[in-house]
Amino acid sequence: MKRRPHSPGFFRRAATAAAAGALALAGAVALPAPLAQADATTSGDVIANLWSYNWDSVAAECTDVLGPNGYGAVWVAPPAESLKQTNYYWWDVYQPYSYDLNGRFGTAAQFASMVDACHDAGVKVYTDAVINHTAAQTGTGYHGTTITNKYDTPDWDPDDFHTSAECADSDLIIDDWSNLTEIQNCELLGLPDLETEDDDVRSGIAAYLNKQIAVGVDGFRIDAAKHMPVGDLNAIRAKLDDTTSGAEPYIFQEVYPGATPAASDYYSAGDVLDFTYASRVKSAFQGNVSDLESLPSSGVLTPANSVSFVTNHDTERNGLHMSYKDGDTYRLANVFQLAYKWSTPTVYSGFEFSSSDQAPPNSNGFVTDTDCAGGWYCLQRDAAVTGMVKWHNAAGSEAVTNWSSKSSSVIGFGRGSAGYVAINNGSSSATYTFTTGMADGTYPNVIDNGATTVTVSGGNATLTIPAKSAIAFYDGEFTPCGTSCEEPDDGTSTVTATFSEYAPTTTGQDVYVVGSIAALGGWDTSKAVKLSSAGYPIWSGQVSVPINTSFEFKYLKKDSSGKVTWESSANRSAATTTSAISLTNSWNVANANATDVTFNVTATTDWRTNVYVVGSLASLGSWNPADAIPLSSASYPTWSKSVIVPKSTSFEYKFIKRNSSGTVTWESGTNRAYTAGSSSGYATTDTWK
């Protein structure tokens, strides 16, 4: 074996479905402190899996998103030099060429800077460790290393690898997935298999991991752990240094389900990623979520020894688990994972793809900065997910209580008296009364960042849960009711006012509603009600306002520095009776004479090209492509988005395409024309010209 200051990492790309028996994941950390000691805004145990992000983007995400929202750790790609092929694939990094920390995701200096930035934000860093094997192909790596013999690398000599003698199979390939010797001594998909029973090899691997620990890395996800004996992994672990915080490095392992070997065989070496958990969640959210009541007895791993996930960078591509392409159902499955007390949860965020082998956005193979507005699906930033991370931290180790299955699509459960969540996986809103176990009072709904509130009276809450959404609240800041939360019968009763405002914003801006009554801040901008951007560019929220009351209101924007920008139109006016009201507006468009039009267009695009609508109205960008409305590709090749326009108004519009470099392509032909009516719920059905 060559002497080196570092060492290898774990697993090639994920064995495809055909080789599924090869794959696996693992892990679980200690749960946060009980509620009495927990602060919902501080870091807990939730792991953000940003596996495809380059180092600069991870650093920015730790600083701007993960730390402020209470994530405990970030899991990143292998920091090593890997095979650079003529065609780029996402799994290239699972073919390590050398254990130099300069690679596809950035330089060694950028890696160290990323670790420091995450630590400054209170976020630990776990790296993917590919230490079972090296590259199956010869060529040149991302830092210039050239290999002509796959068994002779900068880190390893030919005698550091298993041969057909140890494999007991002449072709050296794993053929029999029930044969432990083959699984652990033969080559997975032709990847040279390191002889981890050799102490020199163990020392070399430990040196590589210790080099990362010296930079500040807090732990490792061990790739292809199933393909190494647990005794070898424990021997390597014994050679690892303590982290810069003074703790042992946290270990979680990829062990695909199967009896040879079983995931439970690896508990002594660290936690294990729970593939069965992700499969059960997928089955429930694509079937009956009420089935999740029996989750603990469904074959999932023990919570103290496991790390849960809804999907990851391997399984989102082979159909084994859910993916961002499942849309709101995928988001809702992550809400459940964060609410349910089980193992340590991970939230995966990656790039959009149209083929299973597709590489992340890159320049000459080197991953470019993450752009959540194009080419990436940034679930970790979603308001419902960040709200649930805080909810999860506040709930701590409280047990699941008050489970209620209202239908096959609607469930609710609490975590002691610490928090409650109701989930609606159905296609229409649902109203039910839930026994929450919570103290009486008014709570903000973390799913929409507090734009709506929940009232608990006598321990019960009557909730109207939107389709494919949830309502969640916890015992943090809330307004107690005293002896009762029943509405008084003295003329001070309230009704719900739903505010919807079409308002494009710049980065860092949020939209608020403020008005003449106390419920809307009494014109005090510091007490304005923040709206949710979940339907951007439409901002919405619900406010309890007095019945039989006339009031004025207006929308405003606030940026991260607190600068306030008022809309320039006159004060808007509204009046309540004894029924709920809805107020639909557009920024700087005179009061409520507005309606919604959903634009639908069938349009095929190249990778990283998006479709927009632009038109003659201010709410359609006034023909300025820079202000065009981005359409959603969730139902590709149909692109759609709801836009607020004035009622009973005729206008013209067209669709445009914009690629990643900003080049705009207008559709051909004359302008399209449409006339909005005086009610609501209008839609177009178009095909790109």
TrEMBL record:
<dbReference type="InterPro" id="IPR017853">
    <property type="entry name" value="GH"/>
</dbReference>
<keyword id="KW-0119">Carbohydrate metabolism</keyword>
<dbReference type="Pfam" id="PF00686">
    <property type="entry name" value="CBM_20"/>
</dbReference>
<keyword id="KW-0479">Metal-binding</keyword>
<dbReference type="GO" id="GO:0005975">
    <property type="term" value="P:carbohydrate metabolic process"/>
</dbReference>
<comment type="similarity">
    <text>Belongs to the glycosyl hydrolase 13 family.</text>
</comment>
<dbReference type="InterPro" id="IPR002044">
    <property type="entry name" value="CBM20"/>
</dbReference>
<dbReference type="GO" id="GO:0004556">
    <property type="term" value="F:alpha-amylase activity"/>
</dbReference>
<dbReference type="GO" id="GO:2001070">
    <property type="term" value="F:starch binding"/>
</dbReference>
<dbReference type="InterPro" id="IPR006048">
    <property type="entry name" value="A-amylase/branching_C"/>
</dbReference>
<feature type="domain" description="CBM20">
    <location>
        <begin position="589"/>
        <end position="689"/>
    </location>
</feature>
<dbReference type="GO" id="GO:0046872">
    <property type="term" value="F:metal ion binding"/>
</dbReference>
<dbReference type="Pfam" id="PF00128">
    <property type="entry name" value="Alpha-amylase"/>
</dbReference>
<dbReference type="InterPro" id="IPR013783">
    <property type="entry name" value="Ig-like_fold"/>
</dbReference>
<dbReference type="InterPro" id="IPR006311">
    <property type="entry name" value="TAT_signal"/>
</dbReference>
<feature type="domain" description="CBM20">
    <location>
        <begin position="489"/>
        <end position="589"/>
    </location>
</feature>
<keyword id="KW-0106">Calcium</keyword>
<dbReference type="InterPro" id="IPR031319">
    <property type="entry name" value="A-amylase_C"/>
</dbReference>
<dbReference type="Pfam" id="PF02806">
    <property type="entry name" value="Alpha-amylase_C"/>
</dbReference>
<dbReference type="InterPro" id="IPR013784">
    <property type="entry name" value="Carb-bd-like_fold"/>
</dbReference>
<dbReference type="InterPro" id="IPR006046">
    <property type="entry name" value="Alpha_amylase"/>
</dbReference>
<dbReference type="InterPro" id="IPR006047">
    <property type="entry name" value="GH13_cat_dom"/>
</dbReference>
<keyword id="KW-0378">Hydrolase</keyword>
<dbReference type="InterPro" id="IPR013780">
    <property type="entry name" value="Glyco_hydro_b"/>
</dbReference>
<keyword id="KW-0732">Signal</keyword>
<keyword id="KW-0326">Glycosidase</keyword>
<protein>
    <recommendedName>
        <fullName>Alpha-amylase</fullName>
        <ecNumber>3.2.1.1</ecNumber>
    </recommendedName>
</protein>
<feature type="signal peptide">
    <location>
        <begin position="1"/>
        <end position="38"/>
    </location>
</feature>
